[in-house]
Amino acid sequence: MIEVGIVMGSNSDWEVMQNAARVLKDFGVAFETRVVSAHRTPDLLFNYAETAAARGLKAIIAGAGGAAHLPGMLAAKTHLPVLGVPVPSKYLRGEDSLLSIVQMPKGIPVATFAIGEAGAANAALFAVAMLANTVPELAEKLIAFRKRQEETVLAMSLPEVE
Ligand code: RP5
After folding, report:
1. Rounded to an integer, what is the distance from CA 80 to the centroid of its chain?
2. How far does residue 37's CA lie from ligand 1's centre (Å)?
3. What's the confidence (pLDDT) of residue 103?
4. What is the position in ligand 1's atom list of the atom closest to the CA of 9?
5. Pocket around ligand 1 at a 6 A CB cut-off
6. What average pLDDT is seen over the chain?
7. Does domain 4-154 have CATH number 3.40.50.1970?
């Protein structure tokens, strides 16, 4: 069963959002990817959000750029946790996306991550951590992932100064 939905406002967001898909794939979490635009396909957005929980989704990762209302509108139409990823924009380099997503008024939260690739990957890791609360096998995978990261950094060396 699909557990996480990865949605984005345009296929131009895929370069960033594929980082979320890669993480979920590596952890063996079933996910789907969809283009859903808040302002260009509002009916699709409502339908996606309204049916997500009944379809068994546990979380939605939503990436958008510019006036990035996709995560907020999804959150308005579903009780599922929505994880927002600000996609870098052409003129304001994603600061507009970040502020649009993070500044949700009180009552409808969107968990907001860093701009770009790191945010997409971290949103997926956060989804894994949420799912791991009830799936011990997933928790073990997450702990092993952290251990590998730790070992990579511990093995780092720096050049001698002549
Ligand atoms: C937003 O507008 C999308 O999330 C994308 O980041 C941005 C540009 O979309 P395109 O013009 O590339 O379709 O809705």
Report:
1. 13
2. 8
3. 98
4. 4
5. 8-10, 12-13, 37, 64-66, 87
6. 98
7. yes
